[in-house]
Amino acid sequence: MSYLSVTGNADGSAGIITVDFQDILFLKSNTNESQSILVHTRGGIYYIMGLLRYWVKALNSSGCHFSIVDRGTAVNIDNVARLDRGFKVAYFNNPSDPSSQNCTIAYHRYRLVEKELTMINPDIVIG
Questions:
Q1: What are the chain's domains?
Q2: Which residue positions in the chain have pLDDT lower than 70?
Q3: Which GO terms describe its molecular function (predicted)?
């Protein structure tokens, strides 16, 4: 298991905790804080400092499968349960579940993401 050191708030005053790489659903640039990245997990949202491309490269070099799906968003391909081709959305559990987390995929990146995902998980549900 590999872990990422994160904090519970943008200024770091919540202290540092660790999140397993496998628990990360997606990363999103924080528009409210410069050079801050929101780390989305099923358990909550955490913060790291730096640039999105830096973290995607570092995590992928550590054995993860992150893909930049929009200007400020990178998805953990291993955690995507379903793709919505019409709305260009990646779901991390059943979309009919009201607590289901999801992220949008840029129109021009969708086909590449779908191809990458089906190579890793041929049984992925695409609707």
A1: 3-126 (2.40.50.1020)
A2: 34, 95
A3: DNA binding
